[in-house]
Design goal:
Layout (H helix, E strand, L loop, with lengths): L4 H10 L23 H13 L22 E5 L4 E5 L5 E5 L12 E4 L5 E6 L4 E6 L4 E6 L15 E6 L5 E5 L4 E5 L8 E3 L17 E6 L5 E5 L4 E5 L5 E5 L7 E8 L2 E6 L5 E5 L5 E4 L12 E6 L5 E5 L4 E6 L4 E6 L15 E6 L18
């Protein structure tokens, strides 16, 4: 086993050098765009042209406030075997694959590359990850043998939350193999690993992991790892040292924990009724979503991301919707999808499992920090 986290974390952070209740519109401030040269400028121009051509009319739940989102939204529409980009008004502006051109096997999560030119989709149920070129709509890389789980070269077993870093490498959690991986396309040999199925899914970070289901970069350096076995959330430093471990309060199946701001973290409980909450490094609860009277409970939410205005973007998987929750009012202020009604027509989703904003508001491009490659 090679300890790869110092390099991994450096690459991750420097990659960024029902009905909904209505609330009054709030001024939203987009994050400062990140610029990394002429290639990115050209790519952003192409992406802007691509995502500015709606192909459907608006489809939002009544009462949705389009200003709740700072830009277009990528959705991994898992049971429909597709990726969608919708604008804040609920219009589909991009889809992969095109209707009638096959499917993308059960995309579990999807994130943009920092420059917006590619999307990586994790296909947990078929043990693969796939990279799609946005402009051409073509698969440019796949790691894992679809439907054949394993731990050898070009094999995964229930991968989760793969992310494309600025140096072209890929970081992901490989749940049933009890490990974190860094891949370097076009190779199909793991570049570096942390943990292994031989050591087992035991909570002893950073040496071993209790079935890790997410590894999200922290602003300023480091990574936040979520472990299913034992319901742990662990913070590692920029050089791979364990800073702390805690149990999110009241959650027995934490999913995809990430940072709201230094010292405050968000997680969801993949359970029913589902949990959306913020907590600190001691496991103390700061806020938990409590639906207003008559509003549906969450049902197996799998990911929550903080938005620049303080709201939370949430995949409510078994309710077949993606929502934005305002923690100040405990109201859903934006919703795409019909609550509890799966479908594939415009305005419908089926077990959406992953979301990301289009750059520059995407998860990785919201980070503005740098760290040393070695401690």
């Amino acid at each position: 086993m090679r300890l790869f986290l110092p390099f991994l974390l450096a690459a991750a952070v420097t990659s960024a050098a029902g009905c909904a209740g209505h609330v009054a519109a709030t001024v939203r401030t987009d994050p400062k765009p990140h610029h990394s040269g002429a290639k990115k400028t050209a790519t952003e121009s192409a992406a802007t042209r691509l995502f500015s051509r709606p192909v459907t009319r608006p489809h939002l739940a009544p009462g949705s406030d389009p200003s709740a989102l700072p830009g277009d939204l990528l959705i991994a529409d898992r049971s429909n075997n597709r990726l969608l980009v919708v604008d804040p008004q609920g219009r589909i502006v991009w889809q992969f694959p095109h209707p009638g051109h096959g499917g993308l096997p059960v995309p579990d999560d999807a994130f943009f590359s920092p420059d917006g030119s590619e999307i990586i989709a994790t296909e947990e149920d078929v043990s693969a990850v796939t990279v799609v070129d946005v402009a051409t709509g073509r698969v440019v890389y796949r790691y894992g043998q679809v439907g054949v789980p394993g731990s050898g070269p070009n094999q995964l077993s229930n991968p989760d939350d793969a992310m494309l870093l600025a140096d072209g490498s890929i970081v992901l959690a490989d749940i049933k193999n009890c490990r974190l991986l860094r891949l370097r396309p076009p190779s199909h040999q793991p570049a570096e690993t942390l943990g292994s199925p031989v050591q087992g899914c035991i909570h002893d970070p950073p040496r071993t992991w209790g079935s890790p289901n997410g590894a999200f970069p922290l602003e300023g350096g480091g990574v936040l790892v979520t472990e299913i076995n034992g319901s742990w959330v662990d913070a590692l430093s920029a050089v791979g040292h364990l800073l702390w471990s805690t149990h999110p309060p009241g959650v027995y199946y934490p999913s995809d924990s990430n940072e709201v701001r230094p010292g405050l973290y968000v997680t969801v409980g993949w359970q029913s009724p589902g949990i959306l909450e913020t907590f600190d490094r001691t496991g103390r609860l700061h806020w938990r979503y409590r639906p207003q009277a008559g509003a549906p409970s969450l049902d197996h939410p799998s990911l929550a991301e903080p938005l620049p205005n303080g709201d939370f973007l949430v995949t409510d998987d078994f309710n077949d919707r993606v929502i934005v929750v305002d923690p100040r009012t405990n109201r859903v202020v934006w919703q795409y999808g019909h609550t509890g009604v799966p479908g594939s027509a415009p305005g419908y989703l089926s077990r959406p499992d992953g979301v990301d904003l289009v750059p520059p508001a995407a998860l990785l491009t919201r980070l503005h920090a740098s760290i040393r490659l070695r401690g």
